[in-house]
Design a protein that fits this description.
There is one protein chain. The longest helix is centred in the C-terminal third of the chain and has 31 residues. About 25% of the residues lie in helices and about 30% in strands. The protein is of the alpha/beta class.
């Protein structure tokens, strides 16, 4: 159910995933006028369920979003279906942020909470993308249990591949590290992999194979077939920062080395005054539970900031 976009809000939340909805819920409960602008493109849409989320283990991503939206509305918050096309800041007036949607609707806010998430860039291997979120996974804590005791390949496309293979060895004793385009494991890593029973297949992967919609393995460039039930990859993760980048928000390589994120401090404050960032847009490795917690935390900081500003203005008016 799309809702009208009012002219002004205390806070506009851009992005309606776990971080955005949790932030909006906290803000609505703090009695601020808040709206969530959501383009409806969740990162976890291909996944069958959300895992590691206490009390909602295995819930379908769409169900979690629908429940979160209802909770925000229950406290007077609004959910607006749409895509932010332009975000600008000026120093005039009490609502310095102007957000224009792609259908031309415009609203202004005193503060912004950016929870736009990220985009996963998969390695360029034929057949890989078709299985993303099902037989092709990236996070052992999100999907390791679902592929337990199966033949798991780890596609080495960067320096963290050996670490990823070691992690997946907790869920299966049939893990193979596919060397692909990454450097050979260091002697130390090779010893650890061997100790955990992880084998290494050298050679670049030519394609992913499947039968009846299920992944069956990979074929190397020399024609060698490696039978698999699941494939783990390390994606390049990039914050959805194009629109909010118009504000001048700083992006930088993430400390994990796995992509680029929007820079924010420990309170969620972004590099532009009045803007907070939460969830995968700043923390590329956050699971749903972490993203939700970060949204709540940022909302608390926004509340404190708004109260401080209102108190200062009241004191000045009294003089």
């Amino acid at each position: 159910m799309d809702e009208n976009l009012d002219k002004t809000y205390d806070v506009l939340v851009i992005g309606g995933g776990a971080a955005g909805l949790s932030g909006a819920l906290t803000l609505a409960r703090a009695r601020w006028r808040v709206a969530v602008i959501d383009a409806g493109e969740p990162r976890n849409a291909p996944a069958a369920g959300v895992h590691g989320l206490l009390g909602r283990e295995g819930v379908a991503p769409a169900e979690l979003v629908a429940t979160g939206r209802a909770e925000v509305r229950g406290y007077g918050g609004q959910i607006v279906d749409g895509r932010a096309a332009q975000v600008v800041r000026d120093d005039g007036g009490t609502h310095p942020f102007a957000v224009t949607l792609d259908d031309g609707r415009v609203s202004r806010a005193r503060r912004l909470l950016v929870t736009t998430g990220l985009v996963d860039e998969l390695p360029d291997v034929p057949g890989l993308a078709e299985h993303w979120g099902r037989d092709v996974v990236h996070c052992p804590f999100c999907h390791g249990y679902e592929v337990r005791d199966r033949r798991i390949g780890v596609l080495a496309s960067g320096p963290t591949a050996a670490h990823q293979a070691l992690l997946f060895s907790q869920w299966s004793d049939q893990v193979v590290l596919l060397a692909h385009t990454a450097p050979e494991p260091s002697p130390e890593d090779a010893a650890k992999l061997a100790a955990r029973g992880v084998t290494v297949a050298t050679g670049k992967v030519r394609e992913v194979t499947a039968r009846d919609g299920r992944l069956t393995g990979v074929v190397l460039v020399d024609g060698t077939a490696v039978a698999l039930d699941a494939l783990a990859v390390a994606t390049t993760m990039r914050a959805r920062a194009d629109v909010v980048g118009q504000l001048g928000l700083e992006t930088a390589p993430h400390p994990s080395g796995q992509g680029e994120h929007l820079v924010a401090d420990a309170t969620g404050r972004g590099s532009v005054p009045g803007v907070w960032v939460a969830g995968n847009a700043t923390n590329l490795t956050a699971q749903v539970s972490t993203a939700a917690a970060e949204g709540t935390w940022a909302a608390a900081q926004i509340t404190a900031d708004l109260i401080g500003a209102d108190a200062t203005a009241a004191v000045a008016a009294g003089r």
